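Q: What does the assembled structure look like for these inputs?
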Amino acid sequence: MSEATPARPSPEELDAFRTEVRAWLKDNKPEPPDFQLPDSFMEVGTPEQFEYLRAWQHKVYEAGYIGLTWPKEYGGGGLHGLYQGVVNREMGAANVPFMVNIIGLMWAGPVILQLGTHAQKQRYIQKILSAEEIWCQGFSEPGNGSDLGNAQTTAVRDGDEWVLNGTKIWTSLGTEAKHMILLARTDPGAPSKYKGLTFFLAPVDIPGVHKTPIQKMTGEYGFNETRFEDARIPGDSILGREGEGWSVAMATLMFERGAAEGQAGGLSMVPLRVDDVVQLARECKRDGRPAIEDPEVRAELVRFVMEERALGLCQVRQRIPGLVTERPHAIMMMNKLVGTEFRRRLARFAISLQGANGVLYMGDPDAPDGGHWQRNYMNAFSATIGGGTSQIQKNILGERVLGLAKSY
Amino acid sequence: MADIELSEEQGMLANSAGDFLQKHSSFEAVRQRLASDSGHDAAMWKEMAALGWLGVALPEQHGGADMPVGALVSLAEPMGRHLFASPFLATTLAGRMLAVGGSEAQQARWLPGIASGETIATVALTEPDGSWELGAPQLRAERRGGGYALRGSKTFVLDAAVADLVLISAELEGVPAVFAVERAALPDGALRREVLIDEARRGYRLDVDDFEVGADSRLDGDAPAALDHAYRLGALLVAAEMVGGTEGVMDLTLEYLRTRVQFGRLIGSYQALKHPMVDIMVVQEQARSLLHHAATIFERDAGLAEVALRMAKAMAGDCYTHAADRAIQFHGGTGFTYECHAQLFFRRAQFCEYSFGDSRHHRRRLEPLLLEEGCVWESAHRLVPGGLPGG
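A:
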């Protein structure tokens, strides 16, 4: 990036900024809608949910509270990362909605800033922040989930254009998206499957792109299957270089898994907190007594609090070089695995606090916490599977961090 | 103030420990020392003293470096990693108990020798009932002539045979007291060497019956505070040893998984072995974060420091005992032999787990600290409840 490293703010400057953010959030937190909001961008299933969340992101952008570390010339704040950290924490504490354009903010934007041309940055970055242009991701295919390198969607050059054919799956926000980060095969004859891939910034609101919503196990929508049939995209849609799509995809996944910094910030989902589960344990009864009095429940709650605390402290420790010498990148690389599995287990445990009422689901007026935990448990799998399943994450950690031989 | 801090001095301590232990605590050296009677190496002890390790957290006016108590973790962690055994833990605990509960005169008498390495000291706090609560000792003290007479038993008095000074906790007229006694003054036969699962360690049972000690041997300061300090510092240092030990046993196991071939493949390529190693690493990283947080706030905020410490010891315990257990299994038949170094870690992990409170002990005590309404944890960390999403 062309701009100089931004100055580190003093504690006083940060305090003043925190006060300002807190006041803004208090005044601008949107009224809860009269419909159910999703828990993450992967669960946005109706136009009204989408518009509500898009309006909120736009408002946050106008106030200057996302993209604080991104370069000013492309619409960012040009500030030190500590400022964005303050905003993220305050947003979590204020329980405001999450950002809807997550793929743009967290993955596409950072990778464009890292590897894109000046023209691409000018074209895309500011509209990612403002939520004017929504992004989706086209990595997985029906036949290739975790085996991303085996992508079969093809891109064939034809004059000034590329012609796309194939099918991508699990495209969240697929119906609302204007652009897709897309991994496609440009050289089927390449010596290895990884070498024939190219990374595209592809428009998806064009002829030849067909989107079919997928109904999830919860009964809701949120993901799509996106089929390309001779869809023609501009010749300059490549990010990085032709044939080097695999390394660009890997760079993107580093952002997706939280293993690299440079995301625009803001909340990416409704935080799932042990505090809320402790509160639930006080309110729910098991066999006539508050769940929090059950010795087994207490023991498990302690384990969850400890684990949540430890995960938070890992983020502190990883910034202290003297305390990560053995495995400098381990914490960054394990964040996805650990965070998503933690959410899944916590949601499952929360249901178990509810006694016989644990079977009530969202929509039933008697459901504890409105059935939130039941839905959350099911939706938790989208994160333990998406972005590389937990099992694949363990292979990656075992091989790259622990130096073990590749698994077949 | 940050939740985790590492001062430059602490970093230097850790580095010097790493170098020293590479030299003095190879597997061969550990095995040689554990086969000896005292388990102690006087020349090495002198080197440790010269490095300043024995006065790290003792007052400057008594020859110490006056560093924060949490800095000791930077020594204990690499010691655990290298399976090191020495009177460091015992001497450090005794020195800190004197610093907390001894009068100025008592500190002046004992601490300079401890800080310089001339005096090896130990603590006699645990009793035959095996309780980890150190605040209510049952060994009886009564006034006798101008001094006191002690009657009762203590267990796990570490390195007592080479110690010059023993701090003994007792009940005196219904309240806890601590007596600083020269080991040479103990009656013949008062010490019996225990058979410990960790063969590198030396523990002794102490039995006294009408053992008379002078009036000036009783610590004049706050004895309950000294006992509480010993409990907390013991837990912190053993937690550090366990986090380091997990690192060491992971290294050993990973090395085997990287080199052993079965069915034509490196066994580390099998997910049945690879994935559990990742699980161990993930918990080790978490335990290490809790440990360094506990060390950072050890003297900062009593309530939160207790929470942090118990979390650290509990998770370090779960982590090390599991990693050592899997180390035996993943080494296959080799792992079952005395020759395989995995057993050294395994035995150490067991020893550490049951020193200064096992994981269950600390988790049980965390329950009220974390779950009661209005608890200190809640006011410090809990966000406003009821923040669930939805309409």
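Residues 384-391 of chain B have pLDDT under 50 and may be disordered.
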